[in-house]
Design a protein that fits this description.
With 282 residues, this protein is α/β, with parallel strands linked by helices. The protein is built from ten helices and ten strands. 41% of the residues lie in helices and 15% in strands. α3 runs parallel beside α4.
């Protein structure tokens, strides 16, 4: 089985069970120190290395959304991400996603050659963003979060995490379509770690099939997050094995996108899953 997904001016294909989105943080304060690029050159090299290791798309972020983090201005975000996009585009045609909530940042990114928007606010924070993406014919990842990064982990509560998060994401997907974004260009992200307790995160991972059954591709962003540490007792630098296990389960439940720091290892995991699936293990 192969997967396909429409970008602005091309179709993304993979024969693997899921697309791999490699994380490139052009920020000084992302939660995983090993993911922080110290310079534009470093960020570009990381993106190219991820492409070589098998990333289907690289996700460039210039505003950390870690718990307790603070938002930055559009000007600051642009100064971080735009040179990286331009540097990648001068050397590679690898698809580029931009992790942003802001129309001004996304417009400049699209003009520089980006292909997709990854919006942690699900098009709520900047109403101009949906219209921009629709006009550009660019896809979008809609993520659920409760609150803002500086407050989202202050006692979040859910009666039924899966039902509440899915209801919100379907509402935002419907909104995106009313603004002109095609349904087949919308990806849903349950927002693991964004205003969730341990039990909420685990319930959402376990309920992946409920999200995939809603008719949209689902992205799981579990890489080295606190919930992996909660399950393994390991610090962020030692959460790769736990991440791979959680991602394998999510893919087995139908997730078609994985956002990860460790591209090569994820590609190996998916290769094993793919081979075993051909022998009837599902």
């Amino acid at each position: 089985m192969s997967l396909s997904f429409p970008l602005r001016d091309r179709i993304l294909y993979t024969s693997a069970p899921a697309f791999i989105m490699g994380i490139v943080n052009a920020t000084p304060d992302s939660f995983y120190p090993g993911s922080r690029a110290g310079s534009v050159e470093d960020a570009v090299e990381r993106a190219l290395q991820m492409e070589a290791e098998g990333a289907d798309i690289v996700d460039i972020g210039g505003e950390s959304s870690r718990p307790g983090g603070a938002y930055v201005s559009a000007e600051e975000e642009l100064s971080r991400v735009l040179p990286v996009i331009e540097g990648i585009r001068s050397r590679s045609a690898v698809p580029i996603s931009v992790d942003t909530r802001k129309a001004a940042v996304m417009k400049a990114a699209l003009d520089a050659g980006a292909d997709m928007c990854n919006d942690i606010s699900a098009l709520e924070d900047d109403h101009a963003l949906a219209d921009l993406l629709a006009a550009a014919g660019a896809p979008v990842v809609l993520m659920h979060k409760k609150g803002t990064p500086d407050t989202m982990q202050l006692d979040p509560r859910y009666a039924d995490p899966a039902a509440e998060v899915l209801s919100y994401l379907l509402e935002r997907a419907e909104y995106a379509q009313t603004r002109g974004i095609r349904k087949d260009m919308i990806i849903l992200d349950p927002g693991i770690g964004f205003g969730k307790r341990k039990q909420d995160n685990l319930a959402l991972i376990a309920a992946t099939r409920r999200f995939t059954a809603a008719g949209y591709p689902v992205l799981m962003a579990l890489s080295r997050k606190t919930c992996i540490g909660d399950m393994t007792g390991k610090p962020v630098s030692h959460r790769l094995a736990g991440t791979l296990a959680a991602n394998q389960i999510a893919v087995g439940l139908g997730a078609q996108w994985l956002r990860v720091h460790d591209v090569g290892e994820t590609r190996d995991m998916l290769a094993v899953v793919q081979e075993l699936q051909t022998y009837g293990i599902h």
